[in-house]
Amino acid sequence: MKKYILLVCTALFCIALAACSKTVTLRLPFEASDVQSVELFHFVAPMDAEKKVITQQEDLADLYALFQDLSLKEKKTEPVAGNSSTAFRFYLADGSTYEILYSSIAVKSGRIAVSNQKEDFFTSADIEASWSRCDVGAVPAQESELPLLQ
To answer: What class, spelled out in words, does domain 23-145 have in CATH?
Structure first.
C-alpha cells in the first residue's frame, strides 16, 4: 500500500511539474502578404554577425510559416555561453518592422524574444536551420543593425 501511495504521489508531482511550463502560441500581428522583405542575421558574437536579405516571395512565405502558430513554452532555462543567435527583421508593407531573436541553448531548442513582448519563450523548433536553408549570399553586418539588441 505504501508503494502505491508513493507511486500516486510521484505521478501527481510529475503532472504538477509539467503544468508549470505553460504552452503559448506565437501569433504574428501581420499576414504573410504584408511582408516585403526579411533581414536574417546569424552570429555567436555580435561583432561577427552576418546578414542575408530575403526578398523572394516563396522564401518570405516559408519564414512567415515558420513562426506563425509556433508552439512556445513559458519555461525557465539557463543561458549558454557561446550560443549562436539567429535574428529576423520583417519589413512590412505599411513601413513598420517586426523583430524576432532566437538564441539557441541546445540542438533544435532555444529561446525566442519578439519585438512586442517583454518576456522570452522556449521553443524546441529548429529555428537556427532557417539560416542555412536560405540560399541568399551572406554579408557582414554591423552590431548596430542587429534586432532587439539596441
So the answer is: mainly beta
Query: What is the greatest pairwise CA distance in the chain?
Result: 67
* Residue 122, number of CB atoms within 10 A of its CB: 18
Q: What torsion do the CA atoms of 67, 73, 74, 75 make, to the nearest 10 degrees?
A: -120
Which residues make Cβ contacts (< 8 Å) with residue 98, sequence separation at least 6?
28, 29, 30, 89, 90, 92, 114, 115, 116
Domains of the chain, residue spans: 23-145
76-101 pLDDT, tens digit per residue, is: 766 667 789 999 999 999 999 999 99
Q: What integer pLDDT is reported at residue 116 of this predicted model? A: 77
Cell numbers at residue 88, please?
A: 529576423
Contact 74, 118 (CB under 8 A): no
Confidence of residue 141 (pLDDT cuts 50, 70, 90): very high
DSSP letter for each residue of 83-121:
--EEEEEEEETTS-EEEEEEEEEETTEEEEEETT-SS-E
Taking only the tens place, the pLDDT of each residue in 97-137 is 999 999 988 878 889 989 877 788 889 988 999 999 988 99
